[in-house]
Amino acid sequence: MSLSVDVYVPRAEGGIEVLDVPPESSDVAGWERWRTEVWGSEPVRSLGARFFPRLATEDLTVAPDEVSDFLAECDLLRTHLARIADHMAAEAEAEAETGTGTGTGAGAASRKSHADHAEDVRRRLDNIVNAARRALGIGGGVIIW
Asked: Range of 18's domain?
């Protein structure tokens, strides 16, 4: 399974309405295992990230008034892609050595280069940033689930 990023708008009567993903956009936010292996990983937490690490234990809902801060956190992660990719490469290497792959993509992950890991995170961050910008433009929020 994979994580999805969506834009939502709060309903006047309570709850939220999740909007359709525009045709030119992607809602892919990473594999399910990225909850802990990427977004909730030690390198991300050590940067002082406060939104992404929540994915390790729950779906992430970013309120409309938090979207600007969330975009700043996305920029922070983008500036540290090499560090995150280092962690991913080390995790994949450890899995390859011990044979402890934990799910979809485990075998493929062990064959990826550092640059491939960084590109994977960059592409998912692009999708997340695009959703956050759409949300910001309409006064909505972001949900990653």
From this structure: 2-144
